[in-house]
UniProtKB/TrEMBL annotation:
InterPro entries: eIF2B_alpha/beta/delta (IPR051501), elF-2B_alpha_N (IPR042528), IF-2B-related (IPR000649), IF_2B-like_C (IPR042529), NagB/RpiA_transferase-like (IPR037171). This is Translation initiation factor eIF2B subunit alpha. GO terms for cellular component: cytosol; eukaryotic translation initiation factor 2B complex. Pfam families: IF-2B (PF01008). The gene is FGENESH: predicted gene_7.448. It comes from Rhodotorula toruloides (Yeast).
Length: 353
C-alpha cells in the first residue's frame, strides 16, 4: 500500500526565523551509531520543529505538524515506525487544554518540554519489558531470536546478568544487512553463548529451541507485527513445531494500522517489492552470463566464493514483513503482557475520542 504523494521539497507552512529541515533532522537521529527508535526520533524531530516555529494558533501548529509528519513518512526507509511516533505526538497535542492565562508561546514551550521528557524516558520502557520477559526465560533454555533489537538484547542481558539465568541463543543472520551479527557480538561480549544461523536455517534449528523471541518495528491494531524481513517465517516455523513465539515491543510502537496481508504494509518505495518488470522493459531482456556453481567437494576443501545478489536485486526485495496475530503467543510491552487481541484495547485507550 503506497503512501500518498508528498512533495518533500515543499517549504513548511511556517515563517520560521531559522532554517530547519525536519526530515534531515529525523535522518540524523537515525544515523547515529546507536540510533533512537524511529517513533521516538520522529517525536523528537517534531518537538524541535515546534520549538522553532512561529505558529500562533493551534490550527497553524497542527497544519505544520501534519505536513512535517507526511514528509517524514514519505522520506523514511520504514514509514510505519515513523508514523506511529508522529501520530502519538499529534494525538498528545490535540488533547492539550492550556489554561486561559498561558500564552501560545508558553504553551509551545510546555509541549516541547513534555515531548522531550517522553523521549528521555523512552528507554525505561525497555527496562520494564525486560523485567516482564524474565518470567518466560528459564535456566537451560535455548532461544531463537531474530535480527537485532534493543529491547530483546536488554531482556536477555537482564535475565543473564541480573537474574543469573543460564541459557543459550541462536540468532538469525538477518540479511541483507547482517544485523544478527551485531546481536551475536553483544551477547558474546556479555558471556551469553550465541550462534549465528543462516536465515534459511530457521526451520532446521527451531526444533532445538524452547522459545522464539523477536522485537518489532511496529505493533498493528490487528495484533500483528511489522518486523524486519524474516520475522514472519520464524513465526510460521515456531507455530508448526509448537514453540511459543514472543514479541517484545514498547507501547509507543503500537499503531492504528490493520494490514490484511503482507502487501498492505505502507511503503515509501516507488514500486512494490519483487515486482516483475514489463516484458518490453530493456532490463528484463538483458542477457547475463551464467556464473560457475560454488562447490566444496571435499571436507578439507576451502569454502567456495559465494554468489551474491547485486545491489539492484537486493533493493527490489522487501525489508519488512507482517507477522499475523494467529502466530504470536504473547506481546510483552511496558504496559503489560497481552495477547494480540489486547493491542486494540490499548490503542483505544489512547485514541478514543
Amino acid at each position: 500500500m503506497a503512501l500518498p504523494a508528498v512533495d518533500e521539497d515543499a517549504p513548511l507552512v511556517t515563517p520560521s526565523p531559522q532554517s530547519f529541515d525536519v526530515v534531515k533532522h529525523f535522518g540524523a537521529l537515525l544515523e547515529r551509531d546507536d540510533p533512537m527508535p524511529a517513533p521516538v526520533a520522529a517525536m523528537e524531530a517534531l518537538a524541535e520543529l515546534v520549538s522553532r516555529s512561529d505558529s500562533s494558533t493551534i490550527q497553524e501548529l497542527l497544519a505544520l505538524l501534519r505536513q512535517a509528519s507526511a514528509q517524514i513518512a514519505a522520506s523514511s526507509f520504514n514509514p510505519v515506525s515513523a508514523q506511529s511516533g508522529t501520530s502519538l505526538f499529534l494525538r498528545f497535542l490535540t488533547l492539550q487544554r492550556p489554561p486561559p492565562e498561558m500564552s501560545f508561546r508558553e504553551f509551545k514551550a510546555e509541549l516541547v518540554s513534555r515531548a522531550r521528557e517522553f523521549v528521555r524516558d523512552s528507554g525505561k520502557c525497555r527496562a520494564t519489558i525486560a523485567a516482564h520477559m524474565s518470567n518466560f526465560i528459564q535456566d537451560g533454555n535455548t532461544l531463537l531470536v531474530h535480527s537485532y533489537s534493543r529491547v530483546v538484547i536488554q531482556a536477555l542481558l537482564y535475565a543473564a546478568q541480573t537474574q543469573k539465568k543460564r541459557f543459550q541463543v541462536y540468532v538469525t543472520e538477518s540479511r541483507p544487512f547482517g544485523l544478527g551479527l551485531k546481536t551475536h557480538a553483544v551477547l558474546t561480549e556479555a558471556g551469553i553463548p550465541c550462534i549465528v544461523v543462516l536465515d534459511s536455517a530457521v526451520a532446521y534449528i527451531m526444533s532445538k529451541c524452547d522459545l522464539a523471541v523477536v522485537g518489532a518495528e511496529a505493533v498493528c491494531e490487528s495484533g500483528g507485527l511489522v518486523n524486519f524481513i524474516g520475522g514472519y517465517q520464524m513465526a510460521i516455523a515456531a507455530k508448526a513445531m509448537g514453540k511459543p513465539f514472543y514479541a517484545l515491543a514498547e507501547s509507543f510502537k503500537f499503531t492504528r494500522l490493520f494490514p490484511l496481508s503482507q502487501y498492505d504494509i505502507p511503503s515509501s518505495l516507488p514500486s512494490a517489492p519483487l515486482a516483475f518488470p514489463e516484458f518490453d522493459d530493456p532490463v528484463s531482456t538483458k542477457s547475463t552470463s551464467v556464473p560457475p556453481t560454488p562447490v566444496r567437494p571435499m571436507i578439507h576443501s576451502k569454502m567456495p566464493e559465494a554468489l551474491e545478489m547485486s545491489d539492484e536485486a537486493t533493493r527490489h526485495n522487501p525489508i519488512l514483513d507482517y507477522t499475523t496475530p494467529d502466530h504470536i503467543t504473547l506481546i510483552v510491552s511496558d504496559i503489560g503482557v497481552m495477547t494480540p487481541s489486547g493491542v486494540s484495547d490499548a490503542l483505544l485507550a489512547v485514541y478514543a475520542e
